[in-house]
Amino acid sequence: MMDTRLKRSNAFHPKTDGQTEVVNRTMVHLLRGHNSKHPKTWDESLPYLQFSFNRAIHGSTLKSPFEVSLGYLPQIPFDLAFTMSDQPLSGKEEEEHIRAQKFPEQARKIHTEVEAQLKRSQQ
Questions:
Q1: What DSSP letter does each residue of 20-56 carry, written as one string?
Q2: pTM for the whole thing?
Q3: pLDDT beneath 50: ranges in the chain
Q4: CA 28 from centre of chain
């Protein structure tokens, strides 16, 4: 289990939580770059940028936030375009059943790897 500690802060002092500060700063940079021509529509692109951020591999964990919390990396339409197969539906269902059975073990493995990587990053 990872050693986590809750730090209470108020909305006007985000610097008490360094991780949140880094994420907020990154999201501001992404929003500025993405919405430079139409700055008033930033709220429309926020969910897409957040999804992209959460899907990106981070240096301290060598995993994406999605992979760490969900145990897998969500696919995007580009991924799906290249993974289509000609299997009959029953084969796909069987494959998903096998993946579902392996999921808890895969999630534990990811958490163990992330914990070890975070320890290495802290050193």
A1: HHHHHHHHHHHHHHHTSS-GGGHHHHHHHHHHHHHHS
A2: 0.59
A3: none
A4: 17
